[in-house]
């Protein structure tokens, strides 16, 4: 099965590069890095006790989920994307609202205990996740990322100046929050918009990608140093590579099912994660936290279950296949829309470009348990923007017969 996964991921990657399908690129890379290579390089002596006990189930989850993702993608990849053509040129975008969001974000960071430096230290230590101020700041940062993507789409469509300062500010905030994945998917969102409008080429993104990879590795080193576990750059690289595998997460999910049974109401509990614990102390513990505590580790961060591990906890192997097919189909529809991105309204451009890395990286690796907050903010912002656009769209004069 390992060789089949490696072959399928390389074939998917080649097809995606040839046909310009970013979701398929990210999906194939995820299967290769999170499933295939960890299975190929599996060292029994380095496996945890949980992985040793659940290796069969973890391998089955990895294989079934990969197959389901590709099957769902293939089923929906032939669907055509409905596009709303641009009419009457491109406006300057919601400049005032975007500026208000950025100012609010800066105000929340300034209001954090210790100001900017206190905010950065707390973010790297991952301590403020239960505070209302952190939840509000994170929500504002997610909204700022979307409004910046929208401004970027407006600028790219109208061939005007790009909002480089806004893009840099949003990326800086996510880096200060200690969210390496959040930083990466936000940067990819901006890159997808610029690539679709040919404002940048693939070669132009190589250097920023290398710089971002180095920065994210140094971020892990800095975080470990603040937590009293100092490590050098090479140690951070090894730790980063070891964290790519999702087999440990799947093994923990299987162990949780073995000890507590299936949790059919898991996705209802996921929706409850939208409420800050400061306002809703009784809300269920995140699955990622439960897995970390079950493994007798500290509870500051989490061990992400992955989309497939989360589906296994909710519905076993049937859940893995069902959720996997739906997930692959969603990625295919997003790729269909991306291929016609230039013909979409800027609001839809920003939504499509934001959803692709959010689902293909963040949700695939963390599950909805981890990504629901940003996903809901993104959908709500796009819905409100769509209603505003419909209310302010120019009306055609009635023709008297």
TrEMBL record:
Q: In terms of domain of life, where is this protein from?
A: Bacteria
**Keyword set, alphabetical order:** Membrane, Transmembrane, Transmembrane helix
- Endpoints of the signal sequence: none
Segments spanning the bilayer are: 26-43, 55-76, 96-120, 132-156, 168-193, 205-226, 311-334, 346-366, 372-391
| Keyword Membrane included in the entry's annotation | yes
Its recorded name reads Uncharacterized protein
| Organism (species) | Devosia riboflavina
